[in-house]
From TrEMBL:
Gene: dnaX
Gene3D superfamilies for the chain: 1.10.8.60, 1.20.272.10, P-loop containing nucleotide triphosphate hydrolases
GO terms (BP aspect): DNA-templated DNA replication
Biased composition (Polar residues): 404-415
Enzyme category, top tier: transferase
Protein name: DNA polymerase III subunit gamma/tau
Species this protein is from: Candidatus Uhrbacteria bacterium RIFCSPLOWO2_01_FULL_47_24
Keyword RNA-binding: no
Domain AAA+ ATPase: 36-189
Reactions catalysed according to its record: DNA(n) + a 2'-deoxyribonucleoside 5'-triphosphate = DNA(n+1) + diphosphate
Coiled coil (residue ranges): none
Documented EC number(s): 2.7.7.7
Length: 548
């Protein structure tokens, strides 16, 4: 059976470890000066070299090599294992009895710790100089197991070294942390990841296109082991040269080029072309959440370029992509970048419950394009909600609609009203009168609102391209004071309608159409079957009965 790439190319010396210079240089010098601590704690994301460094440290402290390097230093003097002596070979091959690796996820109990660690640590090494315990996923130990381990770590034998590795350092007790030298491992930078993958590809005599390696590094998210596993899947295709077309058979399909095209459409103000591009995504079977993630990654790069972080973007993208992103950044102001980022963050969140899958993205595109043409309202308050930057205060979307005030009706009033409503009026129809409330403010009837609502929709189409999406299922429900309650069928539409920018535009339109200052409040409207109540339902609700 073939050996997996991540095992075949596991680093065997400190210098072969990708990144983590702050860890490997310190350990090299400690070994060279014979000042090795009795306990170490390696913490950090998976696949960043914690276990590999623990094994290299075990070899370095037990190395028996005498050969001198180019500087005339022996392995013990330069801190690196020679990988030629018997001690190094047995540890590399996993045959060393004095290097004990324990998976704490499988040995969580106190009895396991006592038998495997505490009792074994009392005995001197059988073949090597030091006995090394490597405990992986140490945060999985039980409280009793921690207490048993604490005693041996407080007063360890001189020949024992503990190396604890964990991905969740916050679960390690403080009493253990205080007895260890702690090293935090970092995710691998994309540029270093690509260099590592190029080295492996050269060793395997396979030519891999640089964009493919960059895609592998991006999907690995800083984990070397994941990157090497993806590269091995590419090698399994049996091709001596792996192009982007060949890689698409194995790698998750990326939508980064399409996302970049979309940003260029928004930057150029070509909203129609951007909408057509989004429509083509579903036809091509592209995953919309993944597309949104790619789009936000590109927007992050634009944000970095705008704020002097070009070096970070150059190392993670090719020259052509960087040039296009830089052009987009030059054409956008900082407030517009923040607005567009916030818009697409909300669109990605809205994808989860959207009735029409691409609708949140379409609305975001229209808003981003509209903002570029109309400018940004600077007088609206800026807030930060949770971890998402919100350019405008959207507290109004969470404000519940005020219930309509109702006055109890007497039985005679209900009966008279029902009888009057059942008769046909013999008089000619008259124009609806404008009622007055207690404050002498004009209150429009529902008939008044509905009569001119088509004109509101027409004006919305002319003045703002995003409002027609929101108002496609809308209708005026009622009026309270100077506020018109506009009913829509979908919660997403209601949220967008209540955003300050949308409300400001719509309130201006309705104020012009109805010739009075008015406000707007979006609400969820009932389905037709829920609001077409029969006479019996009305009587049951109001507690009346039909007379005559």
């Amino acid at each position: 059976m073939a050996l997996a790439l991540y095992r075949k190319y596991r680093p065997q010396t400190f210098r072969e470890i990708t990144n983590q210079n702050h860890v490997k240089i310190t350990l090299e010098r400690e070994v060279a000066q014979e000042k090795v601590a009795h306990a170490y704690l390696f913490s950090g994301p998976r696949g960043t070299g914690k276990t590999s460094l623990a094994r290299i440290l075990a070899k370095a402290v037990n190395c028996q090599g005498l050969a001198l390097d180019a500087k005339g230093l022996s392995p013990r003097q330069n801190g690196e294992p020679c990988n030629k002596c018997e001690a190094c070979n047995t540890i590399t091959e996993g045959r060393a009895l004095d290097v004990i690796e324990i998976d704490a996820a499988s040995y969580t109990g106190v009895d396991n710790v006592r038998e495997t660690i505490v009792e074994t640590a009392k005995f001197a090494p059988s073949r090597l100089k030091c006995k090394v315990f490597i405990i992986d996923e140490v945060h999985m130990l039980s409280n009793a197991a921690w207490n048993a381990l604490l005693k041996i770590m407080e007063e360890p034998p001189a020949h024992v070294i503990f190396v604890l590795a964990t991905t969740e350092v916050h679960k390690v007790p403080a009493t253990i942390l205080s007895r260890c030298q702690r090293f935090d491992f970092h995710r691998i930078r994309p540029s270093d990841m690509v260099a590592r993958l190029k080295f492996i590809a050269a060793q395997e005599k396979v030519k891999v296109a640089t964009p493919v390696l960059q895609s592998v590094a991006r999907f690995a998210e800083g984990c070397v082991r994941d990157a090497e596993s993806l590269l091995e899947q590419l090698f399994s295709l049996g091709e001596k040269e792996i192009t982007e077309d060949v890689a698409s058979l194995v790698l998750p399909r990326t939508s980064m080029p399409l996302a970049l095209d979309l940003l260029e459409c928004i930057s150029a103000g070509e909203v129609r072309r951007a909408l057509l591009l989004i429509g083509s995504l579903t036809d091509q079977g592209i995953d919309l959440p993944q597309f949104s993630s790619d789009l936000l990654e590109l927007l992050r790069n634009v944000l970095l370029i705008k704020n002097g972080g070009k070096d970070m973007v150059v190392s993670a993208t090719d020259a052509s992509t960087f040039e296009r992103l830089e052009k987009i950044s030059d054409g956008w102001t900082m407030p517009r970048i923040l607005f567009i980022v916030d818009t697409f963050v909300k669109a990605k969140q809205g994808l989860k419950g959207a009735t029409i899958p691409q609708l949140p993205l379409e609305i975001a595109v229209v808003e981003a394009g509209e903002e570029g043409r109309a400018g940004q309202p600077e007088d609206l308050p800026r807030t930060r909600v949770g971890a998402t930057f919100t350019l405008y205060d959207d507290s109004s979307r969470r404000a519940p609609a005020r219930p309509a005030s109702t006055t109890p009706l007497k039985e005679t009033q209900i009966s008279a009203g029902l009888r009057e409503g059942s008769r046909q009026s013999s008089q000619p129809p008259v124009a609806p009168k404008v009622k007055r409330n207690e404050n002498n403010n004009a209150v429009l009837s529902l008939q008044d609102l509905q009569a001119k609502w088509p004109e509101v929709l027409k004006r919305a189409q002319e003045e703002n391209h995003s409002l027609p999406f929101l108002l496609s299922t809308s209708e005026p429900m009622r009026m309270e004071g100077d506020t018109i309650h506009v009913g829509v069928q979908y919660p997403f539409h209601c949220d967008k309608l209540n955003e300050p920018k949308s409300r400001a535009v719509l309130e201006k339109i309705v104020s012009d159409v109805y010739a009075m200052p008015l406000r707007i409040q979006g609400v969820i409207s009932a389905r037709p079957s829920e609001k077409d109540n029969s006479v019996e339902d009305v009587l049951k609700t109001l507690g009346g009965r039909l007379v005559g």
